[in-house]
User: Fold Permease IIC component from Vibrio olivae.
Amino acid sequence: MKINKTIIQDNMMQLMQRIGQNRYLQAIMRGMMMVLPATIMSSFATLLKVFPVPAYQEFIAEHNLAQFFDIPINFTNNFLAVIVAFSVAYTFAKSFNVDGFTAGLISMISFFILTPYNLGEMGPLGQAIDIPNQWLGSMGLFTGIMVAFVSSRIFVAITLKGLIIKMPDSVPEFISKSFSSLVPGIIILSGFTVLSAAITIGGLGSIHDIIYSIIQAPLTSLGAGIGSVILVSIFAQLLWFFGLHGHAITLGIVAPIWFAMDAAQLAAFSAGNPTPNITGFAFFMTYTAGDLFPLAFMLAFMAKSERFKTLGRISVVPAVFTIGEPMAYGVPLVMNFALAIPYILLNAVILGGAYYLTVIDILPAVAGVAAPAGMPIILSGFMQGSWKIAAFQVLSFVVRFAGWYFFFKIADKIAVNEELAELKQQEERAQAAASLKEVEAKS
Assistant:
């Protein structure tokens, strides 16, 4: 039986597009991107706190300054689950054109309702509430995401069905929104209060204990392996090869796992404790950064094809800042079988090598720092806490260069032949046009 490859390819692309456009995955990715300023702030505070210069560390210790670097860390990285409970609910509700701020606020309050706390002694300003920070950071991240989806989904359903208090158009918008959120807010917060009470009365600890032990810990164990990282890398590049945004699709699936790992990694690094993970989002981004820069360099300075030379000069500067779209769609790398092998497999090779060197203690584990988008290699390596990581990024450039070279020469030769064929066709058309003019002139 003959298999229609075009139909299979079209169906696969449609499936991947549907996955990439899934509201829940998009809400996770956009929600995570919303908290990026907070995670970057935490990363810089951590780097300033542990900057490995003896004289600097002596100054920090002498003036007891570490406690002040801990302030932004505690309310960003160590508060990540709370922030994500708001941001994911916000982006999810906005995708339905519903009030995202109110949805996020209700989600965040719901998260606190489910979080265990202790009541302190009554003081002049009231009774103190002690909330252990165990569940406010990386360990509570999955709970934050699940609370965000449940609360915002209920909020969206109630709002879209019109089961809200509607005020006249003459009422100011901020007052109207306050009243419209009353019904869904009361329903959602009451529901989470009942859930929290039921879990406590049943002696099950808290929802955090349940979700962490049943969902987050097993998924983290599964996603932390280098096999999972390599699989994500290959699959992402394969999707790019077919013209889809591979990272938007694949990283949306693993983002909760890897972000939680990074948060735990950064917290341990900041506290001076042994880091618990090797892989994670920071590991993936640090060692795949600059993946197309060697190809851009070859295009700009080694290509014989005029089209490749021009494209390389345009692409080389963006490639320094880890932007590869000009080459993906300009070379193109999409559906280009001459360059498919290095495009799909080289990142996996580098990630595997980095993992092995980390396991045998030649490379330190990445610190889990959230580097700003477009951070060039070497700088992003230093940001992860060691010059050795930056040095490996330089070595990776050499490995990638060698991996691309053979296939680049093939693609360049094909491009040159196409240009020569096009030039020959232009000459033939010009000669035909000239001959036609001569015939017309004689007649």
Q: What stands out?
A: The chain has two domains: 5-34+76-223, 259-433. The two ends are 60 Å apart (CA to CA). The beta strands are 118-123, 126-130. Residues 259-433 form one domain.
